[in-house]
Design a protein that fits this description.
Blueprint (H helix, E strand, L loop, with lengths): L5 H8 L3 H8 L7 H14 L5 H6 L5 E8 L4 H17 L4 E8 L4 H11 L5 E4 L5 H12 L3 E5 L10 E3 L3 H16 L4 E7 L5 H17 L3 E3 L3 E2 L4 H14 L3 E6 L4 H11 L6 E5 L3 H9 L4 E4 L2 H17 L5 H4 L4 E3 L6
Parallel strand pairs: 1-2, 1-3, 3-4, 4-5, 6-7, 6-8, 6-9, 9-10, 10-11
Antiparallel strand pairs: 11-12
Helix pairs in contact: 1-2, 1-3, 5-13, 6-7, 8-9, 10-11
Length: about 350
């Protein structure tokens, strides 16, 4: 079957091709009765616009910016690499992708970075901090006509149009379920280390984790969460202190990054075999620790999928197209050393 063209739509609606183009691209200057005729013809003929052709015909390129964290977080470094790679792949489609870095643990600094972007971009994807200044900065971008998606960590109180990431409450519940089952009925204390509970993803993971342990493993005592700002040196110091304070510690969940620090602390204390350790994100380092048994299980999110998804989402928002939920759903992966890819 031949592809339906704007010429076919124009003929069916009894209008010019230029009028069809104005209606399809929602430009003014067409009478409502004519708009209705064109839209009826589009529906009857099941016309599908050639989005790539329309994209290439734009007077300028699409410009998207990813705002990512600074620091030694290996997952975020991998996310940055995926942004660069995706940017190279979409260049032929007249899409330019840029990456900016800042301290996302500092609300005012992140807000300043977002505000400085102004309206230089069609869309922005940001690893967000749930902070009043950040929410206001996101709202300012949206008011300026910039499409905004949060990435990995959300700011749901803002006017951002989409969140790209896993269900972090479910990720935390998964961690709790894994840890409880791995402990196999043992009684004792369980520690939590987070980057910052100002990060929505960390807060939601903690909530899900504690919920499962309270409901299904009441013999496990959950200790107060300790923060390490996703810096492995800080995380190592926090983990060493936790192990020293709790000689009866039997389980450990790292809500954020810095797994290298926890592994170093466990191995230095010789307790990597007795403490069940559940971590997030499969990186070159965490993979090795998983293989040798210092990490028992890793909950992962696909950085490449997230960057590609954020790019598609920003493109759809810019073009006024629908977002396909199934395509943009980021799944939760569970890895033990026996099923590593």
């Amino acid at each position: 079957m031949a592809k339906i063209t704007t010429q076919d739509v124009a003929r069916a609606a009894g209008v010019s091709i230029a009028t069809v183009d104005r209606v399809i691209n929602k430009r003014p200057g067409v009478r409502p009765v004519t708009v209705e005729r064109v839209e009826d013809a589009v529906r009857r003929l099941d016309y599908q616009p050639d989005r790539l052709a329309a994209r290439l015909a734009r007077a300028r390129d699409y410009r998207f910016c990813f705002v990512l964290p600074t620091g030694p977080n290996m997952f975020m470094q991998g996310l940055h690499d995926e942004v660069v790679g995706t940017g190279q792949r979409v260049k032929p489609d007249r899409i330019e992708i840029f990456a900016e870095s800042t301290d996302v643990f500092d609300g005012p600094r992140l807000a300043e970075k977002l505000t400085a972007l102004g309206d230089d971009y069609d869309g922005v994807a940001v690893v967000a901090l749930d902070h009043p200044a950040v929410r206001e900065a996101i709202n300012g971008l949206v008011e300026a006509g910039v499409k905004v998606a949060t990435l990995v960590s959300d700011a749901p109180g803002s006017r951002r149009q989409h969140f790209v990431g896993v269900d972090n409450s479910a990720a935390g519940r998964t961690a709790g379920s894994l840890l409880g089952r791995f402990l196999g009925g043992r009684r004792g204390k369980v520690g939590l280390i987070a980057g910052s509970l100002a990060l929505r993803d960390h807060m939601e993971r903690q909530f899900g984790f504690e919920q499962v342990l309270a409901q299904e493993f009441p013999d496990l005592e959950i200790l107060p969460v300790r923060e390490g700002r996703d810096d492995f040196a800080r995380v190592e110091a926090v983990a060493r202190e936790l192990l020293a304070d709790c000689p009866d510690l039997i389980g450990l969940y790292n809500v954020g990054a810095g797994n290298r620090g926890i592994v170093a602390a466990l191995e230095a204390a010789g307790r990597q075999d007795e403490v069940v350790f559940i971590a997030h994100e499969l990186t070159a380092y965490s993979r090795k620790a998983l293989v040798r048994g210092s990490i028992d299980a890793i909950i992962n999110q696909d950085a490449g999928h997230e960057v590609r998804s954020a790019t598609r989402v920003l493109l759809a928002l810019t073009d006024g197209e629908e977002i396909v939920p199934g395509q943009e759903r980021i799944r939760i992966d569970i890895f033990i050393r026996d099923n590593l890819p």
